[in-house]
User: Which sequence fits this backbone?
């Protein structure tokens, strides 16, 4: 008799084509940006489909040549700009896009927008905790989670797990241009449903901000990391008390240079109090 294991997996698909030679001029000011976008005459009737992030053009002109000119004048607190601090520089990033169809349809093309500033010498972001010197990254993070095969060499080809067999659960975050990130599994539960609701039947696996509770009873553990942005939970399968099993995890990222008691990935070692 086997246990069926299902893992939630987020798949991010991007269909837009980046325009390399778009006629876009960017002027970065102290706390704002001015973008001028000149488009071909055939796009003039579709001026309302040109966007900076989620903002429409603040001014629109039709030139004598028949071309259109869209101007976007916005502060970095608008239009869903993302802010990233890396080393001695501060980055504000966004995208220009042309969307002939409404969301959720993808844009026909996108063009990256970036303003880069030197970080002031005494600058301290509002999300820094002065007591611990820990900073929090703000930006687009993509998380992954999957069941691995027993050799830990690739994604498992089946989700039918015999009782007592290992279930290596891999989680990772795409680090991209962010500062180094430490991925943690703060909480994990097993449940008979794909969605958790108040009153749902659950079996706790990880609690207490990252401690593997199941390691007290079985041979479950966290495997040594190859890099900080991913982690493997080596879970021994057992009878959860229901047929199909869905694993739900709360993932978090942290500064790998600054540990705290509430931010950890730990399991109990048999025969010791550790």
Assistant:
């Amino acid at each position: 008799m086997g246990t069926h294991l299902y893992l939630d997996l987020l798949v991010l698909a991007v269909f837009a084509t980046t325009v390399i030679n778009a006629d876009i001029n960017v002027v970065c000011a102290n706390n704002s940006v001015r973008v001028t976008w000149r488009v071909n005459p055939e796009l003039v009737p579709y001026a309302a489909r040109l966007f900076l992030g989620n903002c429409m053009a603040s001014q629109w002109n039709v030139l004598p040549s028949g071309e259109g000119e869209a101007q976007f004048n916005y502060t970095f607190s608008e239009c869903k700009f993302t802010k990233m601090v890396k080393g001695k520089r501060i980055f504000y990033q966004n995208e220009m896009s042309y969307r002939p169809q409404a969301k959720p349809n993808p844009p026909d093309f996108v063009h990256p927008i970036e303003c880069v500033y030197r970080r002031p010498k005494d600058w301290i972001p509002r999300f820094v905790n002065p007591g611990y010197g820990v900073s929090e990254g703000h930006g687009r993070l993509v998380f992954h989670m999957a069941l691995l095969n027993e050799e830990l060499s690739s994604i498992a080809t089946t989700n039918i797990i015999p009782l007592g067999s290992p279930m290596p659960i891999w989680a990772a975050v795409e680090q991209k241009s962010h500062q180094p990130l430490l991925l943690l599994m703060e909480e994990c539960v097993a449940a008979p449903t794909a969605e958790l609701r108040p009153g749902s039947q659950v079996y706790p696996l990880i609690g207490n901000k990252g401690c593997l509770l199941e390691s007290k009873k079985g041979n479950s553990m966290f495997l040594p990391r190859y890099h900080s942005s991913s982690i493997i939970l080596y879970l021994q399968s057992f009878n959860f008390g229901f047929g199909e099993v869905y694993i739900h995890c709360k993932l978090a990222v942290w500064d790998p240079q600054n540990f705290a008691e509430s931010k950890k990935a730990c399991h109990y070692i048999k025969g010791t109090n550790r």
